[in-house]
Every structure is written in structure tokens, then in C-alpha cells.
């Protein structure tokens, strides 16, 4: 806008100068001086705008550089958190009793019987042992190796949290990665197995970039699943707990 005004005034000055050189009257000369004064003022203003614009551009570049550094730092922190989660999972896996290392099945189905439910739940509440691992199972005879992990008092939200864990298996070199399967998790109603009111949920092992479903570099990947699959307040509504036993079923298609 300022540049447009300046250009218009410059043209007017040229016109007045041409008129004055041709013997124009005093009014034209007075208007010429006034126009020249306005041109000088606008030239100064235009210069100030340019300096301000350059200053703003430098400020924007500095802000962008700061944002880029923060993004890089966040990426490093995310990577560090993922590595720490893997280390924690490895340490937890080392505490799993040897009896639980026996392969449960090679059919892609896990039927996990959790006995002494009340004691294990109380241990979780007291912080003695907050999580349990199931026996490992395979998706097929030469498929993916997996296990389940359950937090008996929830993983932060006060409800039973159930996860699938992809483990390092014997046939990983022959499999397609990342792991991409449909996963169905069930808490069985023991009062009516055929038509019971089972708690069921399912998900697909996506996104493919998730560290949970890449080829394992350590014994276990980061667990993935449901933080609130088992509402602890609803367990007594049906026979989800019977004779102090709970049954978890996981199907991997």
C-alpha cells in the first residue's frame, strides 16, 4: 500500500516538474514542493517497513529453527522411552517362572487359566506383583511366537488391563514383518461357555510402524492391547470368576 502511494506521488512529481520547467504558475511549484516532501516521508516509511519485514523474517527463521530442534529432541525422547520400555519388558520376562515357558499351543489360540485369582489380585493391589504373563503360544506350527500379559489391578486406570506380547520366536527369519494379524481377546463367562456373556474385544496389529509389531530384537516387544478390557467392578455380575479361577482366551487370525 505504501509502495503504491509512493509510486503515484512520484508520477505526480514528474508531471509537476515537467509543468514547472515549462513555466508553470506558482501554485504548481508549491504543490511540487509539497509532493516532494510527501515522497521523502513515504520513502523513509517504506525503508522502515523493509527493515521491519526483514526483522520479522529473521524472527520467523529463528522460531522455525527452535521448533525443529524441539521436534528432534522429542523424537530422541520417544526413541529413548521405547528402548526403556523394551528393557523393562526384558527384565519382567526374566522373572517369568520356567513352567510358563512351555509352549501352550501352535494354533493361534491361547486359553489361559489363572488360578488363585483373589491372592494374585491382592498381590497386584499391594504392589507385590502387578502383572502376570501367560505361557507362550504360536500363531501356527512355524508362525509367530506370542504371549499374553495381564495387570490384575489395571495398568493405571484401575481396571484389568490385557495385552498381547510378540516374542522372539524360532522362525522369525522366515516370517513377514511387521506382524499384522487380527487379535481377539476374551474374558470367559464360566456360567455358560457356549452362549455366555463373554467380555470380548478385538483389534488389528496396526499401525505397522509400531514397535510392538516389528521383528523382536530382544526376548519381548512392547505389549499392545486394552487398558480397560476387564472392568473389575463388573466381574461379579457373571461367573467370570468361579472357584477362584479366571479364564482368558486370545485368538490370533
TrEMBL record:
<protein>
    <submittedName>
        <fullName>TNF receptor-associated factor 3-like</fullName>
    </submittedName>
</protein>
<dbReference type="GO" id="GO:0043122">
    <property type="term" value="P:regulation of canonical NF-kappaB signal transduction"/>
</dbReference>
<feature type="compositionally biased region" description="Basic and acidic residues">
    <location>
        <begin position="26"/>
        <end position="35"/>
    </location>
</feature>
<dbReference type="GO" id="GO:0009898">
    <property type="term" value="C:cytoplasmic side of plasma membrane"/>
</dbReference>
<keyword id="KW-0675">Receptor</keyword>
<feature type="region of interest" description="Disordered">
    <location>
        <begin position="13"/>
        <end position="35"/>
    </location>
</feature>
<dbReference type="InterPro" id="IPR049342">
    <property type="entry name" value="TRAF1-6_MATH_dom"/>
</dbReference>
<dbReference type="InterPro" id="IPR002083">
    <property type="entry name" value="MATH/TRAF_dom"/>
</dbReference>
<dbReference type="InterPro" id="IPR008974">
    <property type="entry name" value="TRAF-like"/>
</dbReference>
<dbReference type="GO" id="GO:0005164">
    <property type="term" value="F:tumor necrosis factor receptor binding"/>
</dbReference>
<dbReference type="Pfam" id="PF21355">
    <property type="entry name" value="TRAF-mep_MATH"/>
</dbReference>
Amino acid at each position: 500500500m505504501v509502495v503504491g502511494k509512493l509510486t503515484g506521488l512520484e508520477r505526480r512529481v514528474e508531471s509537476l516538474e515537467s509543468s514547472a520547467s515549462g513555466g508553470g504558475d506558482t501554485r504548481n511549484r508549491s504543490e511540487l514542493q509539497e509532493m516532494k516532501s510527501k515522497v521523502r516521508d513515504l520513502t523513509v516509511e517504506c525503508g522502515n517497513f523493509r527493515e521491519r519485514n526483514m526483522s520479522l523474517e529473521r524472527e520467523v527463521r529463528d522460531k522455525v529453527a527452535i521448533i525443529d530442534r524441539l521436534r528432534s529432541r522429542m523424537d530422541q525422547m520417544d526413541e529413548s522411552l521405547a528402548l526403556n520400555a523394551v528393557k523393562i519388558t526384558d527384565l519382567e520376562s526374566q522373572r517369568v517362572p520356567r513352567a510358563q515357558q512351555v509352549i501352550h499351543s501352535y494354533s493361534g489360540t491361547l486359553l489361559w487359566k489363572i488360578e488363585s485369582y483373589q491372592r494374585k489380585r491382592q498381590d497386584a493391589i499391594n504392589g507385590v506383583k502387578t502383572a502376570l504373563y501367560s505361557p507362550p503360544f504360536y500363531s501356527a506350527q512355524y508362525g509367530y511366537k506370542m504371549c499374553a500379559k495381564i495387570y490384575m489391578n489395571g495398568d493405571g486406570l484401575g481396571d484389568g488391563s490385557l495385552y498381547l506380547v510378540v516374542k522372539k520366536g524360532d522362525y522369525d527369519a522366515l516370517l513377514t514383518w511387521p506382524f499384522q494379524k487380527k487379535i481377539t481377546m476374551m474374558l470367559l463367562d464360566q456360567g455358560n461357555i457356549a452362549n455366555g456373556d463373554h467380555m470380548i474385544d478385538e483389534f488389528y496389529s496396526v499401525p505397522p510402524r509400531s514397535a510392538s509389531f516389528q521383528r523382536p530384537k530382544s526376548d519381548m516387544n512392547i505389549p499392545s492391547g486394552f487398558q480397560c478390557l476387564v472392568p473389575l467392578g463388573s466381574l461379579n455380575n457373571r461367573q467370570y470368576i468361579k472357584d477362584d479361577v479366571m479364564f482368558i482366551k486370545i485368538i490370533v487370525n
